[in-house]
Structure formats: C-alpha cells, structure tokens
Amino acid sequence: MNSAPQMKPWIDAIHAYVPGKAKLDARPVVAKLSSNENPFGPSPHAVAAMTAVLGASHLYPDPASTALREALAALHGIEAGRIICGTGSDELIHLVAGAFAGPGDEIVYVRHGFAVYDIAARRVGATPVVADDVDYTCDVDAVLAAVTDRTRVVFLANPNNPTGTIISAAEVRRLHAGLRPDIVFALDAAYAEFAEGEYEDGIALARAHANVVALRTFSKIYGLAAQRIGWAYAQESLVGAMHRIRAPFNVPATGQAGAIAALADTDWVEKTRAHTLQWRNWLAGEITALGNAGLRAIPSAANFVLVEFPEDGPVNAAAANAALLEDGIIARYLAVQAMPRCIRISIGTEAETRAAAASLRAFVAGATG
Ligand SMILES: *Cc1c(COP(=O)(O)O)cnc(C)c1O
Fold first, then answer.
1. Which of 39, 84, 99, 128 shows its CA 20 to 30 Å from the CA of 276?
2. Quick one: CA dihedral 34, 155, 229, 120, positive or negative?
3. For the chain, how far is it from start to end, CA to CA, in angstroms?
4. What's the gap between Cα 352 and its chain centre?
C-alpha cells in the first residue's frame, strides 16, 4: 500500500507549462514582450461592454455563449450550432485530446509546436508523437510519416507559436488529405488575423470534412487574454463530443460581452494588424542587420519574431536574454521549450519594439567588443 496518493504516471510525465514572465524583481518593466498580447490592449468598446455587465456578476454566465456564437457565425458566415466556446482555446485543445484520445492512443504534433499540445496529450494518458520540423517549419511529410494505426489527433498551429512559421493553404490541405478520416485534425489558428496572402484558417476545411476542428482565440489580436475566450468550429459530431466534457459555465459573462464588442470593432483589429505587420518587419530587419554576429530572424507570419543565436560564444541566447532583462525588457527565452538558442520577442508598441531592438544591438556590440 502507498503511504500517500499517487499521481498517475502520465500526469507525472508532464512538464508543467511555463508562462512568459510578467514582472522583474529589481527594476521596472520597460516592455513585456513575452506572451504575444495586443500592445494597445482591448478595444475600448470591449472594455465598455465588460464594465456594463459587472453589476450582474452574481448571475452565472450563459452556459452556451449563445450571443457570442451568433456574432461569430455572422462574421464568418458559418453555423452557430457548430461553434463551441472555451475558456481560452487552451481549454478547447484539452477537449479535443480528451474527447478523442486516451491511454494507448497517439497524438501527433511538430517538434517546435505549441507547448500545450504535449500537456493535453499526456493529461489524458495518450502518447505524444513528435514530427521533426524543417528549419522551424512544419514538414507535412514528416507529420504524415509520424501517423500510425494508433494516431487519434494531429495538432497543428498555423502560423505556429513559438516559431512564427506558416505553411501554405495547399500544404495544410495536403496534410489533411493524407490523414485517415478517423483522425481529428485540429488546426489552431490563434494567429490567423496576422497571416497574409492565401491562407487556410481551417474553417472551410472544417465545414467540408467531419474530422477537422478549427481553433481560434480572443487572446491575441483581440486583446482579451485575461478574459479567457476561445472558440472552435467543427461538424456537429465533433462539437457534441467536446461539449460533453467542457466545464458548464466555461466563458465568463464579461468575456462573452467583451468578445462580441471586440468583434464589432473592426477598426481596432485593423489598426493592431497594420501596426504589428509594420513593426514585425522592422524588427526582423533590425535582427537581420545583426547577422554578422550570427543572429537570425525566423520569417514570421504572427505577432512576434523568433530570434536564433549562435550555439556558443559570447553572443548567445542566454546572455542576450539576461541583457534584455537588465534593460527591463521581458522576452521569451525558449530554453524551457528545448530551444536554448532562441528568444521569441512579441511586437509591442513602437517604443517597446524599438527598445527591444536597441537592447539587442547594445548587447551584440558589447559582446563582440
Ligand atoms: C496563445 C495561443 C493559444 C491559446 O490561447 P488562449 O489564451 O488559451 O485562447 C492557442 N494556440 C496557440 C498556438 C497560441 O499561441
């Protein structure tokens, strides 16, 4: 007999998610660029809508997020009955894993994929299977080669976090076409609004196929990360399975109201998008200018830039991260995700983004003497 409760072995195997830092011990924060948040905050209309419902906080929220689903359905031209809202898209990722996989099953995702997929797979006792990337980018052939008879779910973030890389609509469709119809293809489009050109956000695929779940969030371009609102679109059979295991009141009333107002404020979304693309390209250019020191900006389709540093020598990622922190700039050093050469920098306001670039420039100048 054990002398204490025993964690299930698959839970014991989870490396807990390490969130981006929000505070510094000894100095004021100049720029928090660690979690890909909207640097302008939520739309003022969303703030007003959330404030207006605070007085009714003694009442449970609408368990079905009905008005929000209807607003999403109208915006995207899809069926409200096939939308499920979640406590962030994080919850929806867990619902996909929980509804479709368990012990003995496999869940596939890419090497430098979103950290929550690993936790979601292990949490339900499924076996995580990692497909190798090519230069931080999803390799569709490697994903398809990782599929076995036991595969139940494939997760893909496109654009991907933490790399910012994207695969084309044709590649997304080729990946889907190569999966058996009993495998759930969960396409996580948390950064869809930042993608340019021809792009498959999963909605058209999910309408046409019974094994596709398109995942979205209000945490990134909509600036509502604190409210924890995500949504998924899929055919009824998939959505129904996810509903069975979700928390009954999983989206707060403030989040539902704020999200509806945020959807309507298209100017705010467009302003964020234009700013992000402009300053993302600027930051990538600044990093490319430090190429002699071995820095490389991985081409990004999202609201952040992944910076790769030389493996050793004075200009390395750990030292650069320390220098950024010294200057009050919190980026995401990815040693926690087995990427010790990489730092992810979210696009902030102009001043914040310039401060991050200046700090990196000064670090490189100091380290190369
Ligand atoms: C941020 C992010 C999410 C989750 O966001 P929520 O805040 O839980 O909605 C999901 N997938 C990816 C790839 C992300 O980067």
1. 84
2. negative
3. 62
4. 21
Pocket of ligand 1 contains residue 217 by CB under 6 Å: yes
- The tens digit of pLDDT for each residue in 304-356 reads 999 999 999 999 999 999 999 999 999 999 998 999 999 999 999 999 999 99
2, part of any domain: no
The last residue of one of the domains, among 264, 286, 321, is 264
CA 362-112-35 angle, 5° bins: 55
**Cβ 232 under 6 angstroms from ligand 1:** no
Residue 241 burial by Cβ neighbours in a 10 Å radius (0-12, 13-18, 19+): middle
Provide the domain limits for residue 201.
44-264
Taking the centre of ligand 1 as the mean of its atom positions, its distance from the CA of residue 354, in whole angstroms, is: 26
Residues 159, 233, single domain; the answer is yes
Last residue of a domain, one of 264, 290, 325: 264
**CA distance to 82, 84, 232, 252, 355, per residue, from 215 (Å):** 12, 10, 4, 19, 33
Q: Same structural domain for residues 182 and 69? A: yes
Ligand 1, atom 11, lies closest to the CA of 190
Q: Are residues 197 and 290 in the same domain?
A: no
**Residue of 142, 112, 98 whose CA lies nearest to 10:** 98
Beta-strand (E) ranges in the chain?
Answer: 31-32, 83-87, 106-110, 127-131, 151-157, 184-188, 212-217, 229-233, 296-298, 304-308, 329-330, 332-333, 342-346
> Under 8 Å CB-to-CB from 167, ≥6 apart: which residues?
137, 138, 140, 158, 175
114 lines ligand 1 (CB under 6 A): yes
pLDDT tens track for 222-258? 999 999 999 999 999 999 999 999 999 999 999 999 9
The reply to whether 138 and 242 lie within a common domain is yes
* Separation CA 360–CA 327 (nearest Å): 10
